[in-house]
């Protein structure tokens, strides 16, 4: 799975789908979902006969997860809320941020970032939410753990595959896999922006811990030096560095 052409495609297990028809006086209900390439919709339609309540065995897999699969997936993702970021834990930071704390603020970064021609903001937001999702299983592996980069990537891909199978919904799992791979491979302009958000969020958090806990976390600032890829990322990092000098 080293390229987008080998993205994970996880299919749901076969099952019979049941669609409940609204009454003839009810408004038609329509639920919209989004993929990186186009907008799709799934609607419930009033049926004229009982035969419309069932689907045959050749029906396409549902693009959305079943309630059971959705709750199983979300329960696994709960670990992202309870697993603390390892870099802060190893430096004895009090009340360190969780993995989901980190991803949430990255999502906000994508939401408020200035418009850039050719950049899909929605994809950036989704990618920020997905980029560390495999850590729900493997945890936050840091360079100090001594795990080779290729082995770390293998573990995370296996974890993502498991999560896709748990989710079950083909289109949702495919989208999640594609976003994760784009980020991992740094293969698109959106991935480069989100990679910068990852570093900028870390140094912003380091500045906050320095101010709140009187710590010197210079190593985190040094670890990102010269590694930002976008003008926006560089500008935000310079703003953080400027505030650090003033507050120091």
From TrEMBL:
<dbReference type="InterPro" id="IPR003607">
    <property type="entry name" value="HD/PDEase_dom"/>
</dbReference>
<feature type="domain" description="HD">
    <location>
        <begin position="99"/>
        <end position="203"/>
    </location>
</feature>
<dbReference type="InterPro" id="IPR039356">
    <property type="entry name" value="YfbR/HDDC2"/>
</dbReference>
<dbReference type="InterPro" id="IPR006674">
    <property type="entry name" value="HD_domain"/>
</dbReference>
<protein>
    <recommendedName>
        <fullName>5'-deoxynucleotidase</fullName>
        <ecNumber>3.1.3.89</ecNumber>
    </recommendedName>
</protein>
<comment type="subunit">
    <text>Homodimer.</text>
</comment>
<dbReference type="GO" id="GO:0005737">
    <property type="term" value="C:cytoplasm"/>
</dbReference>
<keyword id="KW-0479">Metal-binding</keyword>
<dbReference type="Pfam" id="PF13023">
    <property type="entry name" value="HD_3"/>
</dbReference>
<dbReference type="GO" id="GO:0046872">
    <property type="term" value="F:metal ion binding"/>
</dbReference>
<dbReference type="GO" id="GO:0002953">
    <property type="term" value="F:5'-deoxynucleotidase activity"/>
</dbReference>
<feature type="compositionally biased region" description="Low complexity">
    <location>
        <begin position="42"/>
        <end position="61"/>
    </location>
</feature>
<comment type="function">
    <text>Catalyzes the dephosphorylation of the nucleoside 5'-monophosphates deoxyadenosine monophosphate (dAMP), deoxycytidine monophosphate (dCMP), deoxyguanosine monophosphate (dGMP) and deoxythymidine monophosphate (dTMP).</text>
</comment>
<keyword id="KW-0378">Hydrolase</keyword>
<comment type="similarity">
    <text>Belongs to the HDDC2 family.</text>
</comment>
<feature type="region of interest" description="Disordered">
    <location>
        <begin position="31"/>
        <end position="67"/>
    </location>
</feature>
């Amino acid at each position: 799975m080293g390229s987008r052409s080998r993205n994970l495609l996880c299919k749901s297990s076969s099952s019979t789908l049941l669609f409940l028809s609204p009454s003839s006086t009810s408004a038609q209900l329509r639920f919209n979902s989004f993929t990186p390439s186009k907008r799709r919709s799934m609607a419930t339609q009033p049926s004229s006969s009982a035969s419309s309540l069932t689907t045959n065995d050749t029906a396409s897999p549902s693009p959305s997860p079943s309630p059971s699969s959705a709750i199983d997936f979300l329960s696994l993702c709960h670990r992202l809320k309870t697993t603390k970021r390892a870099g802060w834990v190893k430096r004895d930071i009090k009340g360190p941020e969780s993995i989901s704390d980190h991803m949430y603020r990255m999502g906000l970064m994508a939401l408020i970032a200035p418009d850039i021609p050719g950049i899909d903001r929605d994809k950036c937001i989704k990618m920020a939410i997905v980029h560390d999702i495999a850590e729900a299983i493997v945890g936050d592996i840091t360079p100090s753990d001594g795990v080779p980069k290729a082995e770390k990537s293998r573990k995370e891909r296996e974890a993502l595959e498991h999560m896709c199978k748990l989710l079950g919904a083909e289109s949702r799992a495919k989208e999640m896999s594609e976003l994760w791979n784009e980020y991992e491979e740094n293969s698109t302009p959106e991935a480069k922006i989100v990679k910068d958000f990852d570093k900028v969020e870390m140094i912003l958090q380091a500045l906050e811990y320095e101010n709140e806990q009187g710590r010197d976390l210079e190593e985190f600032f040094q670890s990102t030096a010269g590694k930002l890829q976008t003008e926006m990322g560089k500008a935000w990092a310079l703003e953080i560095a400027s505030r650090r000098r003033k507050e120091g």
